[in-house]
């Protein structure tokens, strides 16, 4: 070999398969004829050729077949044992009775097949859903809330009415009773405009309330209640020292209110406040000489103009674009509160909510 392959020869120097045999000797497995070695040389013990004519080879094949038959027989026996023994009816035991036409055949036990479906939830507890209703076989069954039974909407009997009562009735025009007996507004020497309002209140009840159906569609319940509270105070001031009791007819006993003297009774709150999308910036039920929920035409126009100024200069996202517009808005609101108080009278208190300018005026400083 050349000099460049000496390192390769050194690596395999100890390998007997690569070592050069002595001169005159054959390579292992090459034979004397110089034939190439077989791939099975040296492994003769692992490769056995079976000759069909050799009786020993035939016995070995038969032994392997018997082993396979024995394994199959054992497998069949195991499956038969798992299925259970087969019980043959004996001569002493009668055969099982066949089901008749009137008697249905016995149900065969069915094995439960596991599924991935979640188990059905338990039936709802009706007591836990009181007031909300729960779905049963016949649809959603409304349940009465526990607090409903605490509200008594039954009308107060006339024999229980002591003093002067103000309440509407479907079969009477006058809404006044004194110690349970019907009286006319003129008998109390009330102002003519109060008498007209009393009759209007009674007409509204009879036109918008049905004894069987309750409030009819398009009924103005808020106006009815606001006018009732306003009239009760006006009747109390006109009647003098006589106590006045208001009963809102649709609420029955739950709508009974005692009207105290003018100098001690709490006023009703009306709020002046803006909101995006609201045309009239007054919140609360009230009555003035101009009507239910209304001021004079001049004051109504000012209120609507104030709301339009808010919508034009107060962006819902960016806020006020001009600090001067915010200051003018707050100044004009103070004037509106004074005019509203004059028209509402002592039965109401006007509250101002200027949420839209909070933080704006403080940041800009006083007007120059």
From TrEMBL:
Residue stretches of biased makeup (Low complexity): 109-118
Biased composition (Pro residues): 92-108
Compositional bias segments (type: Acidic residues): 42-56
Region span, Disordered: 1-158
Name of this protein: Uncharacterized protein
The species this protein was found in: Kineosphaera limosa NBRC 100340
């Amino acid at each position: 070999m050349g000099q460049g392959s000496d390192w390769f020869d050194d690596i395999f120097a100890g390998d007997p398969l690569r070592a050069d045999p002595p001169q005159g000797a054959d390579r292992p497995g090459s034979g004397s004829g110089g034939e190439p070695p077989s791939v099975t040389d040296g492994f003769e013990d692992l490769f056995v050729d079976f000759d069909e004519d050799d009786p020993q080879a035939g016995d070995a094949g038969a032994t392997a077949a018997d082993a396979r038959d024995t394994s199959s027989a054992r497998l069949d026996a195991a499956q038969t044992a798992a299925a259970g023994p087969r019980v043959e009816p004996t001569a002493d035991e009668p055969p099982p009775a066949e089901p008749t036409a009137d008697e249905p055949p016995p149900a065969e036990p069915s094995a439960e097949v596991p599924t991935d479906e979640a188990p059905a939830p338990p039936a709802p507890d009706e007591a836990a859903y009181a007031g909300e209703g729960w779905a049963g076989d016949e649809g959603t069954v409304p349940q009465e809330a526990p607090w409903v039974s605490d509200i008594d909407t039954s009308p107060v009997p006339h024999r229980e009415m002591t003093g002067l009562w103000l309440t509407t009735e479907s079969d009477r025009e006058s809404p006044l009773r004194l110690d349970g007996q019907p009286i006319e507004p003129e008998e109390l020497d009330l102002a003519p405009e109060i008498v007209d309002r009393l009759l209007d209140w009674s007409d509204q009840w009879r036109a918008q309330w049905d004894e069987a159906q309750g409030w009819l569609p398009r009924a103005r319940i808020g106006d009815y209640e606001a006018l009732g509270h306003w009239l009760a105070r006006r009747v109390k001031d006109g009647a003098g020292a006589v106590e006045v009791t208001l009963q809102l007819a649709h609420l029955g006993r739950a709508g009974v209110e005692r009207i105290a003297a003018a100098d001690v009774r709490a006023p009703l709150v009306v709020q002046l406040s803006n909101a995006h999308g609201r045309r009239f910036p007054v919140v609360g039920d009230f009555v003035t000489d101009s009507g239910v929920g209304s001021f004079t035409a001049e004051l109504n126009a000012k209120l609507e103009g104030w709301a339009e100024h808010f919508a034009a200069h107060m962006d819902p996202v960016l806020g006020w674009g001009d600090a001067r517009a915010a200051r003018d808005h707050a100044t004009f609101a103070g004037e509106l509160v004074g005019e509203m108080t004059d028209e509402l009278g002592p039965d109401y208190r006007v509250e101002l909510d200027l949420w839209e300018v909070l933080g704006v005026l403080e940041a800009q400083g006083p007007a120059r």
